[in-house]
User: Fold these one by one.
Assistant:
Number 1:
Amino acid sequence: MLTPNLTVNAKGHLCIGGADCVDLARDYGTPLYVMDEQMIRENCRGYQDVIAKEYGGNGMICYASKAFSCKEIYRVTESEGLGADVVSGGELYTALEAGMPAEKIVFHGNSKTNSELEFAVRTGVGRIVCDNLPELSRLQSIAAAQNKIVTVMLRVKPGIDAHTHDFVQTGKIDSKFGFALETGEAKEAVLTAMGYQNLKLSGLHCHIGSQIFDTEPFAEAARVMLRFMDTLRESDGIVLPELNLGGGPGIKYVEQDDPKPFGDVIRTILNAVHETCDTLSYPEPYVLFEPGRSIVGGAGLTLYTVMAKKIIPNVRTYVLVDGGMCDNPRYALYQSEYEAVCANRAGEPKTETVTLGGKCCESGDLLGENMPLQSVEPDDILAVLATGAYNYSMASHYNRNPNPEVVMVKDGEARTVIRRERYEDIVRNDI
Ligand SMILES: *Cc1c(COP(=O)(O)O)cnc(C)c1O
């Protein structure tokens, strides 16, 4: 199985975290997102451990909640000692409602609105990562109006060209995020931020992209950032105490994927930090990491009911399910590959190759193509694996499909953490 928390029971049913997926589909309906709490907690602990062991605990792991945001995930990650990375007023609101301490929240975004910034300043968010000069100036005015000193970091593009899909490549110069290093923009931003009375610049941030398997681009980004911090010390006597190294590494979506364990990747990055600081005689900064996908991605799956099967001779076989791009737009967006398993035939070999089609009115509404699958029939339960990240959080109401329920399983028991939307919810704001 793709992840160690998936098993097949004596009935030949797929189980996640000890819970039978066929029972879950019957009890909660489909489509259904299922998240394995134990695996999420183990991932949180894995991150906490590596910071403790390799870096003397001089850092913080902030769960990148855009991967999957709801109250319960903030409670679970907070109880494991993590902070949270939020990217909008909505995520910030959810985190605060769930009891995530404001000082453990890092607020990101390249187009934060004034009302979002006012909300963050008013609630005492620990760090605001500024993306551009107009934002810095607006934040200064907002902080002054509230008579507060706000801790800020600056998002820098370190110019790293990591080998991943273009859409999730954010560290190179042609990116909408952050200040470029090469052009002097980043230095100008540092000096500007230092000049604002109500802003306290604690350090720099970079995020080179998502779903990256290579370790070296992460380590190189850390070196580039530290060398830049060193030049600021030499030219202007500025020593910044914090460095935020962004998101975590890629995860296993299909059998062929072979990512390194995230602990090894973070260890290598921290070694690069140690070595570079040593070479430059630069004080080791407090570090932050913001993993999302590697905490929740592999811990989730989505259950669907097979509605129909269309065999087009010499072309392809479509298996049509009761969800689609409205609950998982990632194949439609970036041809992200997934693995599917027939939950009620999980013990059978995969003898077919299918295209998984959704229920939305788009030909591109597919969950995958060329997917090996057991021979399925209508009413079978299908599981699409590793959907814990960027699925529920990217869900839409296209075709006015209500958002599915999310359950969390622990020790074989499931509980609802987000209720299934009803038609009444869909029209709630209609006049
Ligand atoms: C998306 C993002 C993350 C999380 O990335 P993962 O690949 O899910 O770990 C962290 N930080 C920033 C700024 C991001 O944009």
Number 2:
Amino acid sequence: MDQQVKYLLQESEMPRSWYNVIPDLPAPPPPPLHPGTREPVGPDALAPLFPMALIEQEVSAERYIPIPEPVLDVYRLWRPTPLLRARRLEQALGTPARIYYKYEGTSPAGSHKPNTAVPQAYYNAAEGVKKLTTETGAGQWGSALAFASAVFGLECEVWQVRASYDQKPYRRLLMEAYGAKVHPSPSGLTNSGRAVLAEHPDSTGSLGIAISEAVEMAAGDPATRYSLGSVLNHVLMHQTVIGEEAIKQLAQAGDTPDLIVGCTGGGSNFSGLVFPFLREKLAGRMNPVLRAVEPAACPSFTRGVYTYDFGDTAGLTPLLKMHTLGHDFVPDPIHAGGLRYHGMSPLLSHIYELGLIEAVAKPQSECFAAGLQFARAEGILPAPEPTHAIAACIEEALRCKETGEEKVILTAVCGHGLLDLSAYGSYQAGQVVDFELPMEAVRDALSRLPASV
Ligand SMILES: *Cc1c(COP(=O)(O)O)cnc(C)c1O
């Protein structure tokens, strides 16, 4: 145990730009379409929902976007984040593989989400916006945006998926501590929420429904904008600070990755870790396999279809070409609330179609077991979402044990699980079930896709 386990960067080595992968791809991603005309939506159509600076980033062809100084100044509260070598986990597994993890749980909200919440709040405040609305699943995104809104003097109103609102009271309390207002979704406050409640009074909610509610509220008020914690190009781009730092830290360790693994809900932490490495791969400087891990109960890559669909349940957003289970698909209430989204980032979906990344699905019991094994070796209790990536790392490390391969594996522990203890408690009490997603449920939701373009 005499080898180095922790790779730190100086503040001066923090990335000064976000990386936009689009100009480096062999083909551009398909554009969002207007649901009525089926024509590509122009930036103007997004103006009621987002500030101009973020719309420009969403459609930018620039490879690098400078990070504004006031954003860097807030990033300095917790960035650069550490890269750690999981030596005790390697020993426990008896693997010759070298496992590294980028730990994003050191942020104020405890996950990677503030990497985008901070710039989003900053650009909105700079353009005179007074209030942000958003959805949240487990509450990670809501607490990140509540924190960032407090820093830049914005009001923040959050629709939290009912299942998580009930299961995870501490995340709601954290949002409220930062000054946000939190509603369970579906709520009686919006047309979208009332429509769902009329049909399913006991609805446990979904991210798709909560997005509809937050979008509806923002669209109805000129001083309010909407903020999304994943899926969109600008969100993925803000997260590339993770991968840019990891490249420098792995170089310190003298290693290049053979395999990079991340969990995917909407795709933002995975993309943030992977895109800078994909740039290196496309330039021929390294050749890692890039593997996304999704929950078996919400498998948009591995069982969804690649087509144009709405980003929300009520159909208020533009049509996005993505891997989707259907916009009114309501996933079973698994504990990894941040992975319960019916679709996948259109940009990451496009990259998957190009064959540049691969995807696997994992049942939650295997993930909780992996999370506990990780905690007992490394000390950090991961959030339920990154346990999906950890389970895939362990699987690969055990494969290496059989073959004797000294693979270099990199992952992101994108959040800690200290506000998810009730989920671990359920698992340890034997109460966590693996939902077998019936083909019927998928076929049913897919039957209500918008007519194909
Ligand atoms: C939100 C969240 C996710 C899922 O979102 P991505 O955009 O796919 O990263 C995963 N892990 C944690 C800890 C989250 O908070």
